[in-house]
Design brief:
The protein is of the alpha/beta class. The chain is about 50% helix and about 15% strand. Strands 1, 2, 3, 4, 5, 6, 7, 8, 9, 10 and 13 form an eleven-stranded mixed beta sheet that branches. A two-stranded antiparallel sheet has the order 11-12. Strand 5 (about 100-105), helix 4 (about 120-125) and strand 6 (about 130-135) form a beta-alpha-beta unit. The two termini are about 50 Å apart.
């Protein structure tokens, strides 16, 4: 089972890139991902001797990156050396290797601890349809609390779906935030009228929020929801600070003008001064479930089914438990596993049906064992 198969690690060999390496190692371990390091050299070097020398140095540094990643016990694929503008080279490589995400640094820390988003990373977010994970400089990736703002759009629906799975994998807490924008226009007859209008808007927003959340599997998840009134960017930044958020997961918007990709005004305002590590998703999921259909070992299938259940892939988990039963129809843990999944899916009748089958098989096996012991005693 693969959830996040390939991470394209953008490396510029700076001091801050070592921190991005550490983030890649953490993500690689959590999701059993393949890490693909990439570095981009300029393509306007005229002197061939200089170009050759710079290339050799870059290749040597990429080999060093691969060595460090392997020593950290994560899976590494062959590194990539590109030429051209950094953001274009990284975006092209992300498409070519079919990466689940591009991992980049936020930029150097400034005085006072603030970090402004680097130009290369910003352009990667603008131009790539791949998910982009930005590691905040100087902050280790210890994900205890994830924030996912939603505005009920397709982009935010994708973001929340991925945030839920990441929350399960990191065993973190998830806050789902939906900001109700308030009216501040001067044409209201009085402050009281404006307040009544905004309160009515908030109540409608809460109803819409609850309907939106019904699309998602939030069972066994440590999560809360918040519905503040105000400016979306300001409320998101406030929540990050107030709740000590470790990872922000946001959906971004699509194409505008002459083939130019934009980030989206709210996302851009939030991430301009990097508040924490964040993940942006545009038109592709970062989590893409891939099941290995060639597994024939009963115990391995059962372990995969258990993992799928923990990650919230309920129908897929049932399929894997059923595959266990196709190998051994007396495999009691698989029956009980299917029952547990139906419990999580709020199907008590189905859960009891499979639990009963498991008990019956267990009893038959016990009686068979007793009969065998009795036959042994009689024959002695």
């Amino acid at each position: 089972m693969k959830l996040l198969e390939k991470i394209l690690l953008a490396h510029d060999f700076s001091a801050s890139s070592k921190h991005v390496e550490e983030t890649a190692i953490k993500l690689g371990r959590v999701f059993h991902s393949k890490i693909i390091p990439i570095h981009v050299l300029p393509d306007d070097i005229v002197n061939e001797k200089v170009r050759t020398q710079i290339t050799k140095v870059a290749e040597g540094k990429l080999r060093d990156v691969v060595t460090r990643l392997k020593e950290a016990n994560v899976h590494v694929e062959n590194p990539i050396l590109e030429y051209g503008s950094p953001h274009d080279g990284i975006v092209r490589a992300g498409i070519r290797v079919n990466a689940n995400m591009i991992l980049s640094g936020s930029g150097e820390s400034l005085q006072g601890g603030s970090v402004h988003l680097g130009t290369t990373t910003e352009r990667i977010i603008q131009k790539s349809n791949k998910a982009v994970f930005v590691a905040k400089a100087g902050v280790p990736l210890n994900v205890h609390h994830i924030l996912c703002p939603v505005d009920f759009s397709e982009a935010s629906e994708r973001a929340l779906k991925n945030a839920i799975i990441m929350t399960r994998r990191f065993r973190a807490e998830l806050t789902i935030l939906s900001v109700c924008e308030v009216q501040s226009l001067s044409w209201f007859a009085s402050e009281k009228d404006k307040e009544e209008e905004n309160n009515s808007r908030l109540e409608q927003h809460k109803v819409k929020f609850d309907e939106f959340l019904k699309k998602f599997n939030l069972s066994d998840l440590n999560w809360t929801k918040e519905t503040p009134k105000g400016n979306p960017a300001e409320e998101i930044r406030s929540a990050i600070s107030r709740k000590m958020i470790d990872l922000l997961v946001m959906g971004t918007v699509g194409r505008s003008g002459l083939n130019r990709l934009i980030i989206g005004s709210v996302t851009e305002k939030v991430i301009r001064e990097v508040p924490c590590s964040f993940l942006t998703l545009k038109s592709e999921d970062v989590i893409r479930l891939q099941l290995d259909t060639d597994i024939k070992d009963l115990e391995e299938l059962y372990e995969h089914a258990q993992d799928l259940m923990k990650d919230g892939f309920h129908q897929e988990a049932i399929g894997q438990f059923e595959a266990c039963l196709s190998i051994n129809n007396m495999h009691v843990p698989a029956y009980l596993g299917i029952a547990k999944v139906h419990d999580k899916m709020k199907n008590p009748a189905k859960a009891e049906e499979f639990r009963k089958l498991g008990r019956e098989i267990k009893n038959r096996m016990w009686y068979a064992k007793v009969e065998e012991e009795v036959r042994k005693l009689r024959g002695s």
